[in-house]
What we know:
- The chain is mainly beta.
- Helix content is about 5%, strand content about 40%.
- It has helices at about 1-20, 25-30, 125-130, 135-140; strands at about 155-165, 175-180, 185-190, 195-200, 215-220, 230-240, 260-275, 280-295, 300-305, 310, 315, 325-330, 330-340, 345-355, 360-365, 370-375, 380-390, 395-405, 410-415, 420-425, 430-440, 445, 450-465, 475, 480, 485-500, 505-510, 525-530.
- Strands 7-8-9-13-14-17-18-21-23-26-27-28 form a 12-stranded antiparallel β-barrel. Strands 2-3-4-5-6-1-25-24 form an 8-stranded antiparallel β-sheet, with no helix packed on it. Strands 11-15-16-19-20 form a 5-stranded mixed β-sheet, with no helix packed on it.
Amino acid sequence: MAATFRNTVLLCNLVTFLLAGLGDELLFAQSLSSRHSRNARDCNCRSWTCPACQQTDGCQVRSGVDSIPTTELPEIIHLQPSQVPPTQDQSSPLQAQPTRPSTSEGFSQNTSQFDSSQFNPQSRGRTEQLASRGSNNLNSAIEFQGDYFGVVPIGATATQVFQFDTTITNPYVGQSILLPDNQGTLEILAIADDGTLTLGNPQGLVTNQPDGFQFVSGFGSLDPNTGNYNIDYGLGTDIQLPTNLTGRLKFAENVGLIPRDRVFFNYNYFHNVPLATNGGAIGVNRFTPGFEKTFLDDLTSVEVRVPFSSTLTSDLFATGSNEQRVQFGNVFMSFKGLLWANDRWASTMGTSVSLPTEQDIRVSRRDGTELIRIENESVHILPFLGFTFFPSERLFAQVLTQIDVDTNGRPVLANFGNGLENIGKFRDQTMIFNSAAVAYRLWNGGYRRSIIRSVIPTMEVHWNRSLDRSTELSNGFSTLDSSRNFESINLISGLTFDLINNSRLAVGYVAPVSRTDLRVFDGELRVMLNKYY
């Protein structure tokens, strides 16, 4: 009978231990049976809301007459220090009242140091071994918020080519050539040694172009078989042609330098992005879900992002009135590894890859004639190197540099009068991205049930610059050219909130400070949510 009673008491104590972490109310109920729940750890701190005396950092070890008889249980329950805070000294269990923790769950009671287990409850493996006592800092490092959309749209001339044959006897400079259907005349500007004619239309006599196309250029060549001249001339318009409608991505976009297991969702609103072919600007809403998974003892990770945007349609008109629709972007993957870490420093190295999953860009006239097509076949490789620094337990800084290289270019097709023909490959500019961020853990939540566990103001600066010029393409009629260098400097200020359930929310605003003619947007709002495992 005594054994049955003792087993029953032990079972009740076990259930009490399991429920102790579910709420403050259960702590009081557990304290009433604490004479039976204390184990033999000899940490007699007389704090009756400290089950099993697991909170050794906040307890004073006592001995002698203050020792309390205990019933020893197997070491089954292992409560984290942050789960059961120390309370005021109580003289007896009947007088004890459970008190709320003075700091949020996830912070050590005696130092207010951030508890990394909040964001990674599992063992950190080799990362923790490398970081030694600095692993808490590594696990609490926050992500870059980021700033990037993409480079300025390229300048282009969208041209439709017309062809006809005519008989010319003894051509001379200044001679007029009549166009079919009495649309006007062309003038011979020059005659090459091989008999090729360079044609112009200085008086603008080409008419009947409903969407405002103007004369671009013209050529004539002698056909030896017929003795006639083959005349080609083009009518077109100058446009700003985007090469990426959802924006190019870089590594420093809601990313930390420490490998982690997480899923995330990014939202960006870019104000006044110069994408429209008529030189206008539009607002772009970009959404980027993704995940990161660690491997090799948490030393490395792979990350995948799948962006899509409410942006300019990929089927463009050469003159105005371009619609907006949802467009999928290029899938972005990153591989990173922790190279070295100690209690204050960590370094990370890896590479990103941008895969060509976005739609081709097509430019047409109102009658449906396709003038230019840019096929999305370009694969970008983006190696990076980053450093993380912890001057103190609350202050945090990191820097990152990355190179973006277009490995194979994009085929460009233009209309020669008989449909689209390839005129070469257009390569995006090679870019360098430099980013720096500083953050300070300003405030810690005061209750275990607080939704917000800490508030972290952040400041970032991003410098993006081209290292070369893109390829200039021309078929004598249609052209693509982005010959100028690109440079942008963006500042971002924001707040990062550590939340319950191993989650983190970041909100920031990006302000460009570079020259107005180099800006890719006038302002940007960023919201990022991370869930850690």
